[in-house]
Design goal:
Helices cover 29% and strands 19% of the residues. With 367 residues, it is α/β, with parallel strands linked by helices. It folds into 2 domains: 289 residues, 3-Layer(aba) Sandwich (Rossmann fold); 52 residues, Alpha-Beta Plaits, CATH 3.30.70.20. The strands form 5 sheets. It has an 8-stranded mixed β-sheet, sandwiched between helices. The radius of gyration is 20 Å and the shape is globular. Helix 10 runs parallel beside helix 12.
Length: 367
């Protein structure tokens, strides 16, 4: 299979390492999605056989926001859960809070939304947790050394979790064009402060209309950059270090984020965050669902029109090879992820390879 736009896809010849293999289970060969996934899990048994018996296995996924309908359903997630439990493992499903307005800004509303969508312990066969605490303030700093990012801010779970399975719903994305496993890890496993850093290089500002002067942001600000001015909080741009802790602290949507970011820098930061996070996890596997594909990600999309035919489920130990294989498969006729002629997702894939996140070469094996 040959990739487009000068990004090479492996033709399957000798010389490829096992981690670059991408397994594909087609919907056309299965009665339903559960059967399709079971076939894939049987073929990728070796991915999970290395997980230590009795260990806690985090299953990273998202339920999407309130109006989203394309998310991976709880009965499908349970197929993975039961597979892991049969191996003597202790799986749990997790996500983190988001930085934009909605029902996933805090763990209370987030969990209630998840339960409404069917992600209860009874339906999943395991707990569903929010990894960065009630208000997203569980945020530890890990030093890295990339072009744009020198430290990442992540929940304390990152660094102690040894076994990870990432379930990603492939979609388009308003900023990165294409969203798959890399986006799921980079954004979904970062704390709210970490999400802020990825999204914007400009310091946050206070929306005075929403500020109640509760003082939480002042207490948590590590650089003492926030003070009271005329009964409202005010962030000093000179003292602000852009950590995003104020964003996590505020419960009144009074801290604004700058969304106008250079897109190449944005996708580079996502790749850097994904690389930094995954470097802390000993054993991991990635599964992408190429179904119900919408122009926007599950954070924004409601019951939006689908932009591609449902294809199947893909799995790999190489997160970049997996996303590249999905992209190639879904853009055989035209690049459905292009935005106004721009293909920032191609820059993300190339940059991810440059920093060693994975390989652009892969061997696609249909099961």
């Amino acid at each position: 299979m040959q990739g487009k736009d000068s990004i090479h896809a492996s033709d399957g010849k000798a010389g490829r390492t096992p981690s670059n293999v991408v397994y594909f289970s087609s919907f056309k060969k299965a009665k339903n999605m559960s059967e399709c996934l079971n076939v894939l899990l049987q073929r990728t048994d070796k991915y999970f056989s290395g997980f230590k018996k009795g260990s806690f296995v985090g299953i990273k996924m998202t339920v999407g926001d309130e109006g989203s309908t394309g998310y991976i359903r709880p009965d499908i997630v349970r197929v993975v859960v039961e597979n892991l439990k049969a191996r003597g493992l202790k799986p749990f499903v997790f996500d983190t809070n988001v930085i934009y307005t909605g029902r996933r800004q805090n763990a209370v509303d987030h969990l209630n939304l998840a339960y409404i969508k069917g992600f209860t312990p009874d339906n999943l066969g395991c707990p569903y947790i929010i990894a960065d605490s009630v208000f997203g303030t569980d945020s530890r700093v890990i030093e890295v050394d990339f072009r744009n990012i020198k430290e990442i801010r992540v929940p304390s779970l990152v660094g102690v979790l040894e076994d990870l399975v990432v379930l990603s719903h492939v979609t388009g994305h308003i900023m990165s064009g294409f969203a798959g496993a890399i986006k799921n890890v980079a954004m979904g496993m970062a704390s709210r402060a970490g999400k802020q850093v990825q999204h914007s290089s400009v310091k946050p500002i206070i929306n005075a209309d929403n500020c109640t002067l509760c003082g939480c942001c002042m207490v948590l600000c590590p650089s003492s950059a926030i003070s009271e001015v005329k009964g409202k909080a005010l962030i000093s741009s000179q003292n602000c270090v852009g950590c995003g802790e104020c964003l996590s602290a505020c419960k009144f949507d009074a801290v604004n984020v700058n969304w106008h970011e250079d897109m190449d820098v944005f996708v580079e930061r996502m790749s850097e965050y994904a690389s930094g996070i995954l470097s802390r996890v000993k054993r991991k596997a990635f599964i992408n669902f190429a179904a119900d594909i919408t122009e926007e990600c599950d954070c924004i999309a409601g019951d939006d029109p689908r932009i591609a035919e449902d294809t199947g489920i893909l799995a790999s130990k190489d997160i970049l090879a997996l996303d590249k294989a999905c992209y190639d498969m879904l853009t055989l006729k035209n690049d459905i992820f292009s935005r106004d002629g721009k293909k920032v997702h191609l820059h993300q894939l190339k940059y991810a390879a440059e920093i060693g996140l994975g390989s652009l070469d892969y061997m696609l094996v249909e099961v």
